[in-house]
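Hi R.,

Here's the chain you asked about this morning:
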Amino acid sequence: MISTRHAASVALVLALALIPTAIHSYWGAVARDGLSTSNVPSILDGMSSTPTPRKAVWVMNNFQSEDWIERTYLAGTDDVVLFVGRSYDPKRLYHHPELALLRAYETEPAGIAYAASRPDVPLHIVTTKRQDQHGVAVYALLYDGQFIANPVAFQLKTSAELLVGGRKPMTLFMASDLAGARDRAADSPAARVLLAAIAAFEAQAPAADR
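And here is the predicted structure, written out as tokens:
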């Protein structure tokens, strides 16, 4: 015979454990901020662009994102490919995004740099190589108004919040110059495009939840 003395306590614990499942699986609760990558203009800081042939199904499969853009900007004599994508599954974005976006290239993380014009934005630097062609990519991660320097610390900090709260979108900005110089990455054409895109994205007036 099973004692019912602790039935109420057990039921309460089980109910609490079901809260995250209900929030994310059944209610699909998300915290919308009204921002969109579509508001990043096709001309940034005088640099014109053309869309890349990236497919929506590829972005969904890799990043769980329906809100994204990818364009090639002409920065002086350099072609810089800019990807901006948002996802409610942050790990899809912060866990080595270069492995997906630069799949045809050998990539190597090269630390974090800061541009003098935006010391608040940690620029994650990645060097690239394909045959004899060397280049550089820079990316930044934005979550809830804050730029992320350490994704592991971010994951630990937000894990409890994500268990019981609505999911918030993370935004990935990546600019790659696959023929660009690797030195002074924070002042490179790729960084220029990236920071211009961030400024345009931040300039959006937050809209009411939709």
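One quick note: The chain has one domain: 32-202.

Cheers,
M.
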